[in-house]
Write a structure and sequence with these properties.
The protein is mainly α. It has 7 helices and no strands. The chain has helices at residues 2-9, 12-21, 26-29, 38-55, 58-86, 102-119, 124-146.
Length: 147
């Protein structure tokens, strides 16, 4: 039952965007926004998990701290690759703090982790780590919604 509910939420972002815009095909009527680089996306996730760890307590704080640590390892790996390819040291272009509630932020992070997995098809280790983080978020969200 829970799985069916969570699966039903997949693709909800497109539906909600059409509702907000009042257009049937909102995603085709607009230009697609520029997708952040993998490194920017990883930094945003790391920042979100760090922020959530500061804002929560107990088991949730521990889980967010672990997610942040795992994501930071991904950031370090991507930073190394970026430096080796370009010779430039990566610096985030914008503030990456999520600025939303924890549950909404968890949902956004879950979606971001899923996109991250798809974009990392050629790097199995990083893709697997992102998939595990997405699974942890799904479990945490399901637990919160059961209360």
């Amino acid at each position: 039952m829970e799985q069916e509910l969570l699966n039903a939420l997949d693709g909800f972002a497109d539906v909600w965007q059409r509702v907000l815009s009042g257009q049937e095909n909102a995603h085709t009527a607009q230009e697609a926004p520029e997708e952040p680089t993998l490194l920017d996306q990883a930094m945003e996730l790391w920042s979100a998990y760090t922020d959530f760890a500061r804002r929560t307590r107990g088991e949730a704080r521990e889980r967010f701290t672990a997610l942040a640590e795992g994501t930071r390892e991904t950031v370090r790996t991507l930073q190394t690759e970026h430096f080796l390819r370009t010779g430039d040291i990566y610096r985030p272009e914008r503030d990456t703090a999520p600025g939303v509630g924890v549950l909404t932020g968890m949902r956004r992070a879950y979606e971001a982790e899923q996109r991250f997995v798809r974009r990392l098809e050629d790097n199995k280790a990083l893709a697997d780590a992102a998939a595990r983080r997405a699974d942890v978020l799904r479990d945490m969200i399901a637990g919160l919604l059961r209360k």
